[in-house]
Amino acid sequence: MKNKILLIEDDIAISEMVENYLRKEGFNITTAFDGEEGLVKFLNNSFDLIILDIMMPKLDGMEVMKIIREKSVIPILIMSAKDSDVDKAIGLGLGADDYIAKPFSMVELSARIKAMIRRATQYDKNDEKEDIINVNDITIDLNSYVVTKKGVIIQLTSKEFNILKLFISNPNRVFTKAQVYNFIWNDDYFGDDNVINVHMRRLREKIEDNPSEPKYIKTLWGIGYKLGEF
Length: 230
What we know:
Radius of gyration: 18 Å
Strand order of the largest sheet: 2-1-3-4-5
Strand content: 15-25%
CATH superfamily of the largest domain: Response regulator
Distance between the termini: 43 Å
CATH architecture of the largest domain: 3-Layer(aba) Sandwich
Largest sheet: 5 strands, parallel
Order of helices and strands: EHEHEHEHEHEEEEHHHEE
Number of helices: 8
Structural class: alpha/beta
Number of domains: 2
Oligomer: single chain
Helix content: 40-55%
Number of strands: 11
CATH class of the largest domain: Alpha Beta
C-alpha cells in the first residue's frame, strides 16, 4: 500500500515539482494550496505524513501545525525558505518533526520523508508487543500514542512521544545526543544540538513538574540523558 502524504504548499510550481517527484517515488500525494484547504483535507482524510510550508495565505503554516498537533501526532516536515536557527527552533518547538530549507534537493526531501515514515512504522510494530508502560505519575499507551500524567492527557508531537518512549523503554540506559538522534531521526548525527535541545526542552515543559529541575529525563552533563529513578 502506498504511503499517503498531504502536501500543503501555496507555490504551484514547487507543489507540482514535489508532487511529480514523490509520485515517481511511489507515494500517494494529496495537495493543498493554502492553510485552510490543508486543514480541511487533513481533517477529512487519513495520511502518513504532512509536508507543510510556513508562509501561506489564509492560514500560515505555524497556525496549521498548532491545530494539527491538537488532534494528531502525525509526522510533520516543514518546507520553507526561512532558514535561520531561530525559525527552525520555532517550527520544531511548535510540533514539526523535521525541517528542510528551500531551495532543496529532491533526493534529500525523499530521503527525509522515507526515514520519517520508516521510523513511525517501526514504532507502530513495536507497539504491538507491549501496550501500556507506567513511570511514576506518567502512563504511556503505545498503541494509541496517548500519554497521561495523573490522568490528564499530555499533547505530544510524534518526536516527543518517541523520545519519551525511548527512555521509558530503556530505564537503565544512558543515551548520548548522537544515540538519541540516531534512534529518533534514524539518521547520522552531525553535532546539531539545536534540534535535540528544542525537542528535549519542549518535552520537559510538558511532562515535568519543574522543567528546570527534570525528574523524568535527567541530564548527565558531558554524557547524555537517562530516565530518572522513582
